[in-house]
Amino acid sequence: MNTPPPMVSRACAILLGRPARIAERLKAGSRTAVYRTIVQDGRRVVVKLYAHTAGRNAFTEATAIRAAEAAVPVPEVLGFGTTSDEGTTALIMSDLGTITLGAAVRSGRVPHVQALRDLGGLLARLHREPVAPSVPRRPFFDSVSSVARRCPPDLLSEIAPALAVIADTPDSAPTVWCHGDLHFDNVVLSGPRNTRHLVDFTDAAPGRRESDVAHALVMTAAHTPWDRHALIGAYPLALNDTRLSAWVVVHTVSCLVHAASGDDQAFWSSRLADLARLTPRFFRAPRKERTGQ
User: Fold this and answer.
1) Whose CB among 88, 96, 165, 279 lies 3.0–4.6 Å from 246's, allowing a Cys bridge?
2) Is the pTM here over 0.85, yes or no?
């Protein structure tokens, strides 16, 4: 760990009453940055900073974590709020440690199939938690807007059948708390029993359960029948298979259009081509692999 950036120390001082002593950057993006931090009083915390331009910020994430904490293990929210005149916000949480489910799978400590079952069970528990009527629902367009903005028109037209299935979801379909970005590295093993904790609720919002389950299937590469069964078999809630498969297509396209050019983009293009062969009804025409946009 190193001397903390001024914004991290300021966030700790404002929200915890003590400045940071040292900090280690865990990850940084265009609108968020996360630091493992030791405060002057010795507390070990995780500080997440959000740029003032971030549509979802410390307030929305803290709300989601506190809504989820009755259903699944999550980090404790220690403080959140605005930390600069420009509107930067920060969220401070308990530090659960460094061992993720992803790291445990890669080291062979947890079998891949067991990790899939863990995700299915966590999602089921989260999706059972009631969504308060006062919490804004995420409209259909918002769910796919980032894909639509980046997607070439011909590719968007190609997946029109999948989009139509999602758009036609009846209002009576259950609305649940969706994590929005569940994969192995967003589960931290902590405590003497290696309890699975859900972390990173940046994209959490009320939505459709099929979208959240499909995202987990895509991000864990659970595309074989047995991997898909491992995750869904641990998820006892009812799923609409047609909507689930349509969401798998949309999430895969999202990964493709956000991928870096080169091998990453080729990988997701290949994955989408596989889906077109396996589930042609969600595509307008047979697709050609895309290795460059």
Assistant:
1) 165
2) yes
